[in-house]
Amino acid sequence: MPVQRLHTDRRLSEINIHNGTVYLAGQLADDFSGDIYQQTRETLANVDKFLAEAGSDKEHILVVTIFLRDIALHFEGMNRAWDEWAAQGATPGRTTVEAKLAKPDILVEMNVIAAVKA
Closest Cα to residue 65, out of 117, 23, 13? Predict the structure, then answer.
């Protein structure tokens, strides 16, 4: 079964679809000048956009890995945005870890794996 890749450049593909599963590259906010709440909301909006393009949505997310620059400082604000966004009754498996992200002003990054909607 072939792999479908969308938004591909020399470094990565934002969306990879294989055998009914969607794999998103690490998703970020569009604007890194905001606080964790704003960056999380933007990151989740990008997740929504790419999942829709791949034929999926947040109710079909299987697992999310969330990387926070400072878990002690940012966990509460990230969770506030997450709780507003998450599909109640269809929340995915989730892991949240502290990580040294690519740039100092990036506060959150998310990796998402989802099922394609039937």
Answer: 23
Q: Tell me which residue range forms the domain holding 25.
A: 2-113
Asked if 73 and 101 count as a contact pair (C-beta separation under 8 A), the reply is no
Q: Structure pTM?
A: 0.95
Domain count, the chain: 1
Instruction: Tell me whether residue 26 is in a domain.
Output: yes
Query: Is 118 contained in some domain?
Result: no
The tens place of each residue's pLDDT in the chain, 118 residues long, gives 899 999 999 999 999 999 999 999 999 999 999 999 999 999 999 999 999 999 999 999 999 999 999 999 999 999 999 999 999 999 999 999 999 999 999 999 999 999 999 8
Is residue 43 domain-resident? yes
Sequence-separated (6 or more) residues with CB below 8 Å from residue 106: 28, 29, 32, 39, 69
